[in-house]
Amino acid sequence: MPKFMDSHDDLKLPAQAWASLAESTRAGATDEFGVRQIEAYHNQDGQVYCLVDAPDAEAVRKHHTALGVACGEVHPVESLL
């Protein structure tokens, strides 16, 4: 499955939302668009980078729209490992 990285510039989520995201990520949950969260990197300023498995970039955008989260650019990425 292709991997994609997207970003969010001002996404300040409460600790419980991050805990829920971490739980679903550990469980390997895949949504109705075929998107599976691999990792999310975030800081207190609200900068967030999401690494996901997805069929295509459009699925990543639909995934975020369904969550009510604005999505920045979506980039296909490859891993070194």
Outline of the structure:
This protein is α+β, with helices and mostly antiparallel strands and 81 residues long. Helix content is 30%, strand content 28%. Strand 2 and strand 3 form a beta hairpin.
Q: Note the gap between the termini.
A: 15 Å
Low-confidence stretches: none
Give the structural class. Answer: alpha+beta
Level-2 CATH architecture: 2-Layer Sandwich
Q: What is the number of strand segments?
A: 4
The count of helical stretches stands at 2
Walkthrough of the structure:
The chain has a single domain (3-77), classed as 2-Layer Sandwich (Alpha-Beta Plaits). The model has no long low-confidence stretch (mean pLDDT 92). The relative contact order is 0.31. The protein is α+β, with helices and mostly antiparallel strands and 81 residues long. The chain starts with a strand and ends with a strand. Strands 2-3-1-4 form a 4-stranded antiparallel β-sheet. It is globular, with a radius of gyration of 12 Å. The protein has helices at 15-27, 57-67; strands at 3-8, 36-42, 48-53, 74-77.
Salient structural properties:
81 residues; alpha+beta; Alpha-Beta Plaits; 2 helices; globular; four-stranded antiparallel sheet
